[in-house]
Amino acid sequence: MSQTLFINATLASMQDESGYGLRQQAALLVDGDKIAWVGNMAERPTPDAAAVIDCRQRLLTPGLIDCHTHLVYGGDRADEFELRLEGASYAEIAASGGGIVSTVNATRAASEELLFTEALPRIRALLAEGVTTLEIKSGYGLDSDNEIKMLRVAARLANEFKLRVQKTFLGAHALPPEYQGRADDYITLVCEEMLPRAQREGLVDAVDVFIESIAFDLAQGERVLACAQAMGLPVKAHVEQLSDLGGAAMAAGRGALSVDHLEYLNAADVGKLAASGAVAVLLPGAYYVLRETQLPPIAALREQRVPIALATDANPGSSPVHSLLLIMNMACTLFRLTPAEALRGVTLNAARALGLDNDIGSLETGKQADIVLWDVTRPSMLSYRLGVNPCAAVMQGGQWRHPGAPL
Ligand code: DI6
Ligand code: FE
């Protein structure tokens, strides 16, 4: 099995509860697809056959994890962007048949091949900035065949890029037009037909639901989570994005891996998240694009030690954003996260939001060798600058993404 020894590194292990777990003059040994040793240069092992990478004090971090995306979809919503700039709200556009439903029409009309091809530049943009694990949701098909089509594309993208992709079934993202006025019947279809079929085809790692005035109510959301759990699947939920329907407390009470968005989360419900261990996934891209002004209850989340993750929410409507570095900057600038919290949000806490923190998310012995070498010497640089990509090389599962990459 091949070995790689990184030497003279500045290393942000992200393994502690706070800070970067920063080491200067560090070394790290990769053996096969795993991290075999992390420590100080002076104590480094001296394997015979390891390739040696001299980091020259540059930064090593865990591979970045984008734990919430809707990366596979048909069409775009540039027209809606213009309408919103002229004053229409996201909710108004949704209510008049645009919004998510317009992407549903375009996604249904697209072939699997076209969805795959159109997702390529988006995924390449994420990967170029050191993403090694990605979550992709369905939710623009809203019937069995089209939800399966989306999830197959996600699986194919994983294959194509030798990337870890978690596939999340979001059949209850919006009410499809043919079920207008029959939301409960649609939830029955989701629970009894769509989700079981997607699971039989091996396409589901977790189940999500959008609980919101423009989507499903609390009881409908809970039905989806309950049927997913009865099938043994982990759950998560889009909650409190535009209003407070109590979705976060409900999902946390059911042991959800994460609750996502949270701008309208009531500070009183933060304790319920803390007690449940759910990760709070914040999506500053959607906050920014929708010109939201209501901030998630950051201070309460921090005080009660709810793990905070960050993600792009890459989607054609509320967050056409394909840069996790930009999201880190937005989280610092708009939400006042510290750069250490931002980096934790796209590494260890993002791994937790996907239930993968035993395997990835920090530079620790025994974890997967998903490692990024950055052309910077301090981790705050990753959040500080906009529009510069300092990613020098990416190792995924012990393999360089581009052969012969670093230096
Ligand atoms: N919240 C979001 O921000 C995305 N989905 C959701 O439930 C937006 C989806 C879209 O506008 O297409
Ligand atoms: Fe989303």
Please provide a written account of the structure.
The protein is α/β, with parallel strands linked by helices. It has 2 domains: 3-62 and 362-400, Roll (Urease, subunit C, domain 1), CATH 2.30.40; 64-353, Metal-dependent hydrolases (TIM Barrel), CATH 3.20.20.140. Helix content is 37%, strand content 21%. The protein contains 15 helices and 16 strands. Strands 1, 2, 3, 4, 5, 14, 15 and 16 form an 8-stranded mixed sheet that branches. It has a 4-stranded parallel sheet with strand order 6-7-8-9. β2 and β3 (34-40) form a beta hairpin. α4 crosses α5 (144-161), α6 (183-200) runs parallel beside α7 and α12 crosses α13. 54% of the residues are buried. Fe (iii) ion binds next to loops. The site of 3-[(4S)-2,5-dioxoimidazolidin-4-yl]propanoic acid has 15 residues, from α3.
